[in-house]
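Hi F.,

I've been meaning to write this up properly since the lab meeting, where we talked about keeping a consistent format for the predictions we share between groups. The idea is simple: the sequence comes first, exactly as it goes in, then the structure tokens exactly as they come out, then a line or two of notes. No screenshots and no reformatting. I'm using this chain as the first example so we have something concrete to point to.
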Amino acid sequence: MSIVRIPTPLRKYSDGKAEIDVTGATVREVITSLESSCPGIRERICDDSGEVRRFVNVFVADEDIRFLDNLDTPVKDNDEVSIVPAIAGGR
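Output, unedited:
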């Protein structure tokens, strides 16, 4: 099992939980498993084509999946998967 860290804006889908234990050998499988536990969360992470939304960052063991194999990035038991909404700002 892996631990998925849920950001505050998405905790309404996880009954307020900051962490969820899920199974999956890849990030794609982890997100599918997460959707089973937290219905509605997948569409907040992935777009209509199934890819991670531009404004969402996903990390496996502190590594950005965009620099690895994206949704096909392997996830090992006890890996932490973090979902981090991008924050834009400026003047």
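Notes:
Residues 15 and 21 are 14 Å apart (CA to CA).
DSSP finds two helices and five strands in the chain.

If this format works for you, I'll send the rest the same way.

G.
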